[in-house]
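[step 3/7] fold_predict: job queued, chain A
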Amino acid sequence: MRSFQDLYDIAADRKGGPEALEAMIPKPDPNVSQLPEDRWLSLFTKGVFQAGFNWKVIETKWEGFEEAFHGFDVDRCAFLHDEDMDRLMSNAAIVRNGPKIRTVIENAHFLQGLRADGGAGKVIGGWPSEDFIGLLEMLKKNGSRLGGMTGQYAMRFAGRDAFILSRDVSARLIAEGVIDKPATSKTAMKAVQGAFNTWMQQSGRGLTEVSRVLAFTV
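[step 4/7] structure written:
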């Protein structure tokens, strides 16, 4: 496994030099722990609906989603009932997918459950990057349809430090001998986390920055 500096040099060479590369590397939001509950629910919902669907369609309709789900007020969404489901399933301003609409209710309950531990901002935003796979496992286990890439993208879009195992990132991890195929098993994810932890220690950067550098090497 090459050092982070070696990988950074590869990415910089491909993208026109260090200055150009740095301009393309996003930074996590240092205030992510202050993100309100409704924004977490909004991000979860957007991630769920974008999965397997045209992202541009969801973006175009998103104002309709915000209105249909009362600004993603967690308590209101947690108590949506059958009549609300009928209303939503007839609302052309959103994508009318029943199972995905129900995830709004289920993820509202999930967020309510985090209040006992300080709330979503503290639990999700404050989860240590060195155990990001633990956070992903928690989202998969306790949330609704928040496993796999959906959870990874939701975390990145929320602004929290996160890696995304995109095709390019996975290709670099395979090339470095960290994994032998796209990571799906717990063993493979543990190996991925170990590699990221090493590169974070070497570089002083977080998961988001390391992840983007890896993507730009391919």
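[step 5/7] annotate
The first helix runs from residue 4 to 15.
The radius of gyration is 19 Å.
exit 0
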